[in-house]
Amino acid sequence: RELKMDLIDKFPHEEKAIRKLMVEVEKAGAGMLLSMARQMMPVWLWKALMALPTPQRYLINKYGRTSFDDGLAKCGIKDPELRAILIAEFGDHGVIPEKVSFFLQAGIVGHYMAEGGFSVIGGSERFAEVLVSSITQGGGAVLVRAPVDKILFENGRAVGVAMANKKGEIRAKRSVISGAGAEVTYKKLIDPSMLEQLGGLPEPINETAREPVAEHIYGFIGFDESNEALELPSYNLWNFPKGAGADPSLAWQSLFAREGEALPDGLKSDEAATAWELPSLISFPSAKDPTYKDRCPGKSSCVIISEAKASFFGTPGPANKRGDEYAKIKKRYEMALLNTLFLHFPRLKGKVSYVDVGTPFSNDHYLGRTQSYGLTQSVDRFLDTTLRITVPGVQQLYLTGQDVVSGGIFPQIFAAWMTFGHVMGPFSPDFWILFWDFAKTVVKRSIFDKTYTPKLP
Fold first, then answer.
1. Which end of the chain offers a freer environment for a tag, N or C, measured as fewer CB atoms within 10 Å?
2. Are 388 and 252 a contacting pair, CB within 8 Å?
3. What is the full DSSP assignment across 76-144?
4. Which candidate, 73, 83, 63, 46, places its Cα nearest to that of 379?
5. Cα(339)–Cα(187) distance, rounded to whole angstroms?
6. Phi, psi for 178 (deg, rounded to 5)
7. In sequence order, what are the residues at sequence separation of 6 or more whose Cβ sits closer than 8 angstroms to the Cβ of residue 180?
8. Which pLDDT value is given to residue 331?
């Protein structure tokens, strides 16, 4: 059954408000698409459309400048438990409902409406396997352990990249496309002198530096028993401690230090950490994947994700030499993560065979930034005109990925097509032939290829 009807069954006194909200959720998608459209038009045209009484201005003001929390109130949602259910997945983007654009959280709600969530069969490595094979079949190459030091420029054009550790250069045949994220591209891959010529950092990068969000803490937990033996669920659990009532936003604030203090209460001692229940996502990837038992017989896994601040860890050194303060805080997070897991799944006590903890500095090691989701996904970021797919002030340098659209896997399809459109140009036959093939495949699969139908309770 659809989410809408499930909610109405559980909250019949809120039926009118729920129906109104679901209509608004579907309409909000148009606002999100229009916010993406700013990347496909000149800045002057975007500003003109936002200044004149256009449908674009109406939809973006209604769904982009309104927070999700305000949107719930306007729809008439009053029940605290219903509100908590509707906002609980805000960890998917990292911005509390009082600050996030209505259309962003509406996208989270909307994509669960018909069939819930999905998980890839074969583990997350299947993404790499499928994408890499497509690239190599098309004549491309994928390099690993080949970090880039900087982007090369000549006569106002991006012409290639210089490899780290002076291992040579790779020259571009046509253009340079960076999917490393806006922060890494502007702060690490573009020389300061060139950055000055480009006019400095785009405003969303400055905003993220002022108030970083989604600096996650991760608990990776293993068990030497199967999913069936441990009775692990395939659903995700968003955990918000009851001490905050039915307000997930208030519960989330317990993850951070109070004003004037360096650490949240749960990190001030080992005893406090052992008793700390973290607001978090608890998931069992092994239980979602029917191939896991063949790939890893007699094993199972859990991941817990919560939020931290890089500042909680002091000033750690390089990887594998982080220092004592870092190790102490990391260990306390391990205590808190396990406590949170056992509060909900007490049968797992004594069953844990492996624990590893990832921190914001793990993000920095692998991604070049402490924030998991890249740029802060605020209202201003989605209306900004300073961060462009075609980097202003230089030719043949393009951005792609989550920072030009939004976080999440599905939006990257839009980011890829928009970047491809900029590189090839709107009149390129190759672009339209490939886009037609893509659209035809999507329509065909959605109608005829129902490879998975969820079992309903």
1. C
2. no
3. T---HHHHHHHHGGGGGTT--TTTSBHHHHHHHHHTTTTT-----TT-THHHHHHHHHHHHHTT----S
4. 63
5. 38
6. -105, 120
7. 148, 189, 368, 401
8. 97
Closest by CA to 214, choosing from 375, 101, 332, 99, is 375
Question: Can you list the residues of the chain whose pLDDT is less than 50?
Answer: 452-457
Closest CA to 95 of 395, 372, 446: 372
CB atoms within 10 A of CB 264: 20
Strand partners, 286: none
Q: 313-320 long-range contacts, Cβ below 8 Å, gap at least 24?
A: 313/359, 313/360, 313/361, 316/361, 319/365
Residue 327 has which token pair? 């190790």
pTM above 0.85, yes or no: yes
CA distance 305 to 249: 16
| pLDDT score at 244 | 60
What's the pLDDT tens digit per position in 282-297? 999 999 999 999 999 9
Spatial distance between the Cα atoms of 188 and 151, rounded to a whole number of angstroms: 9
Alpha carbon dihedral 179, 125, 90, 219, in 10-degree steps, equals -120
Would strands 397-399 and 176-178 be described as parallel, antiparallel, or unpaired? parallel
Concatenated DSSP letters for 48-95? HHHHTT-HHHHHHHHHTSSBHHHHHHHHT---HHHHHHHHGGGGGTT-
What is the C-alpha to C-alpha distance for residues 91 and 237, in angstroms, rounded to an integer? 12
Q: How far apart are CA 101 and CA 175, in angstroms?
A: 34
Residues 98 and 83: beta-carbon distance below 8 Å: no
